[in-house]
Amino acid sequence: MSVIVLVEHTGGIIKKQSFEAVQYAAQIAPKMGTTVTAVALGSVTEAEMENLGQYGAQKVLHVADGRLDELHSRAYASALIAAAQKENSKVVVALHDIRGRAVAPRIAVKLKAGLVAGALSYPDTEKGFVIKKAVFSGKAFAYVNILSDVKVIMLMPNTFPPQKQEGKAVVEQLDVSFSEKDFSVKVKSVNKVTGEVPLADAELVVSGGRGLKGPENWGILEDLAKELGAATACSRPVADSHWRPHHEHVGQTGGTVRPNLYIAVGISGAIQHLAGVNGSKTIVVINKDPEAPFFKAANYGVVGDALEVLPRLTAAVKKF
Ligand code: FAD
C-alpha cells in the first residue's frame, strides 16, 4: 500500500525536483504506515534509480518502454495507474509542472481520487488530509481536505529542498500493456535548449519585461545572467511579441519558478506575472517607475533605467 511518486528525468538524469517529490512522499508514508515506491518511465539507468533511496524511496518500479522518453500523457497515466494498482496505493504524488499537469488529473479521474494542485505543505493527517495551496494567483491560501479514499497530490516544485541521506532503492521492472491510444499524440519536433541553465531547475533567474524596449536589448540581460550562472525568463507580452521564446514566459499562463533569487527587469509586476514568481525566496526589481506594483513584492529594488542599471550591475558582479 505504498505512496507512489512519478519521477521525471531529462535524458536519463533524474530531475532535482523529483528528488524533492520522493522526499515529500517519504514524509507522508510513515503517517500512513507505509513506504515510498517511485515510478520511473523510459530510459533511466539502474544507478540513477537506486539513488532515489537517498531521498526515501524503498522501491522503484521501472517501465522501460523507450517511447516514454517523450511525454505521452495517456501512456504516463496508464503506467502510473498500473503501478498504483500493483502497490494498492492510496496516495499518488506528482510535480506541479508540465508533466504533472498533463498526467495527474488523468490519474485522479481514473482512480476516482481527489486532487490538490500546487501543494505547498505536507498533508495534516490529524485534521483529515488537509493540504495548503495558493489561490487567486498567489494572493491567498486555501486549505483543502481530500476526502476520497485515493488521493493525488501535485507538489509545487522547489517548496522543500531535497536533502540527500544514505539509502539505495530496489529497482523492479513493471510491464504495462499500453494501447495504441496511449501513444495517439505524436511529437513532430523537439527543440532542445543546450548550454543554458534550464529555467525550471534554476536557483537564480534574470527576467525581462517590456521595459527592455525590444529584443535588441536582451544582450545586456543575458550578460548579467551569464555572469551569475542564472537562467533567463520573461513576461508574457515579451514572449507574445516574439522577443523571447515561449518557454521563457513565466506567470499565470506560463511557467512557475521558485528560485532563490529572481531579478525582474522592466516588468510592471501584474498579478498574472506574480502568480508564477511570487514563491521566489528573494526578489529584486529594477524599474524606472517608483510606483511600479512589483516593488510591493520586492525584497530589494532599484529605481532606474534598465539599460543603464544592467551593465553596471554586471560589471559589479564581475568584480566578485
Ligand atoms: P508592461 O506592463 O508594459 O510594463 C513594463 C514595465 O517596464 C513598466 O513597469 C515600466 O515602468 C517599466 N519600464 C519601462 N521602461 C523602462 C526602463 N527603461 N527601465 C526600467 N523599467 C522600465 N503576464 C505575464 O507576465 N505572465 C503571464 O503568465 C500572464 N498571464 C496573463 C493571463 C491573463 C488572463 C491576462 C489577462 C494577462 C496575463 N498577463 C501575463 C499579462 C499581464 O497582465 C501584464 O500585462 C504583463 O505581465 C505586463 O508585462 P510587462 O510588465 O513586461 O509590461
Automatic annotation (TrEMBL):
Entry keywords, A to Z: Electron transport, FAD, Flavoprotein, Transport
One BP term from GO: fatty acid beta-oxidation using acyl-CoA dehydrogenase
KW Ligase (keyword) present: no
The protein's name in its UniProt record: Electron transfer flavoprotein alpha subunit apoprotein
Residues engaged in binding FAD: R210, S235, R236, G266, I267, S268, G269, A270, I271, Q272, H273, N287
SUPFAM superfamilies named among the record's database cross-references: Adenine nucleotide alpha hydrolases-like (SSF52402), DHS-like NAD/FAD-binding domain (SSF52467)
Organism domain of life: Bacteria
Boundaries of every Electron transfer flavoprotein alpha/beta-subunit N-terminal domain copy: 3-187
A GO molecular function held by the record: flavin adenine dinucleotide binding
Essential cofactor(s): FAD
Record family assignment: Belongs to the ETF alpha-subunit/FixB family.
Cofactor binding notes: Binds 1 FAD per dimer.
A Pfam family this chain is assigned to: ETF
